[in-house]
Amino acid sequence: MAAIISIHSFRGGTGKSNVSANLAASLAKKGLRTAVIDTDIQSPGIHVIFGLDQAKVRFCLNDYLWGKCGIEDASYDVSKAGGVEENGRLFLIPSSLRSGEIARILREGYDVALLTDGFQRLIRQLDLDCLLIDTHPGVNEETLLSVAISDLFIVVLRPDNQDFQGTAVTIELARKLDVKDMLLILNKVPTGTDLAALTADAEAAFGVKVAAILPLSSDVARAASGGVFTVNRPDHPFSRGIADLTKHLNGLVSPNG
Amino acid sequence: MPNGNQIRIELLDANQEHVADEWTFSPLTKCVIRIGRSHENDVVISDRYVSRFHAELRFHDGFWEIVNLGQHGILRQGRRIDDTCRLEKSEELQLGGSGAALRVSLLDRNRSVPAFPETLTTLVYGPTAPGRIAIDRADLSRAVGEIAESPYFRELRGVRKRLDEGQTPGE
């Protein structure tokens, strides 16, 4: 069975989509058939990291939710952008960037339950080992649904007071939904931080293991989501952190489930 | 929060107009700050003109000193430092003749400075600020309770239960 991994943050700006894209690429490079789906319909962005040309996007997640296509029709092979050279494959299911379609979602909403069916169909149609869900920040219906059906719930936060309370709420809700596994990623951690103290404090506050600490990096900022960072800078501390995170998933994700 | 002898290092951009990155340290927790291109440093600067281990800032006898370690030296007010120099005030330093420029600020304990990090969104976290992740447990309990009692959340618990029993969510 394929593993479903939701990647979430309570607030925007935590680097969640960047983590999602880089983790997806890292898993695919290990030989896993991986897909990442952008359910952040209100503020999509992960397609930028993979350099997906919107002009070449015929269908996206929005079209599936409005019954215009099957969800697999909205999947795009981004293996090359993810640095996947052999064995594994990497697919992206983007949300629409067209302002009219985003406005329609905000105005009309959509049947959240369709997402569940879509995830299962994607896994079957693309023969996936792993499906990553890049969620919308905050606590809302689609986020909670993604959490409920996940095998692993990864929460990204910054060492920032704005992130703490909402992250705690999200984690407690995930516990009430009996999610099997949870991991924390501390992102945008400034140089000079006592990482051991931060890890211990985060694990005590949230009761969840810290799987990776990623630096507040001007290199990452300068890259400006212009590509998958771990592909372009494999030896960078950020990339090493993604490698740490990938190691944590060894027992959960494997080829052919 | 007192800033006793804290030191702030700002990496300036190529035009030396904007701060590209910054670090703040306290001698209470770190008396030697290593600067260079290697990721083993406390302040890592990705600049090919900066040596792997270019310089150290050392807190000694109540003062910060800059110590050159690299072969390219450090420029201070146009003059090259090849060994050690005490920092009397905040000033700009250049690592090598063509390397990165740093603005080093001494945060005087008696001077009124912004209450960094409390007033900034992204804070510097360290052993000088233990227990900083504070959760309001009463508020947490109230918020989780309100959401968990909603019909939608109860429905999701059913979805989860069906998954754990080996069924697909829609069954």
Put the structure in a nutshell.
The complex is a heterodimer of chains A (257) and B (171). By secondary structure, chain A is of the alpha/beta class.
State the main characteristics:
heterodimer; A: 257 residues; alpha/beta; Rossmann fold; 40% helix; B: 171 residues; 6-stranded antiparallel beta sheet; 5-stranded mixed beta sheet; 2 helices; 15% helix; elongated
Structure overview:
The complex is a heterodimer of chains A (257) and B (171). By secondary structure, chain A is α/β, with parallel strands linked by helices. Chain A has 11 helices and 8 strands. Chain A has one domain: P-loop containing nucleotide triphosphate hydrolases (Rossmann fold, 3-Layer(aba) Sandwich), CATH 3.40.50.300. The radius of gyration of chain A is 17 Å and the shape is globular. Chain A starts with a strand and ends in a 9-residue tail after the last helix. The mean pLDDT of chain A is 89. With 171 residues, chain B is α+β, with helices and mostly antiparallel strands. Chain B contains 2 helices and 11 strands; from the N terminus they run βββββββββββαα. The longest helix of chain B has 14 residues. At the A-B interface, helix 5, helix 6, helix 7 and helix 8 of A face strand 2, strand 4, helix 1 and helix 2 of B.
Number of helices of chain B: 2
- CATH-derived architecture of chain A: 3-Layer(aba) Sandwich
In DSSP terms (H or I, runs of 4 or more residues), the helix count of chain A works out at 11
Number-wise, the strands of chain A total: 8
The major β-sheet of chain A equals: 8 strands, mixed
Question: The CATH topology of chain A is what?
Answer: Rossmann fold
Helical fraction of chain B? 10-25%
The tally of structural domains of chain A comes to 1
Cα end-to-end separation of chain B:
57 Å
Mean pLDDT of chain A: 89
Shape annotation of chain A: globular
Strand content of chain A: 15-25%
Strand order of the largest sheet of chain B: 2-1-11-10-7-8
Tally the beta strands of chain B: 11
Q: Overall 3D geometry of chain B?
A: elongated
Question: How large, in whole angstroms, is the Cα Rg of chain B?
Answer: 24 Å
Q: Beta fraction of the residues of chain B?
A: 25-35%
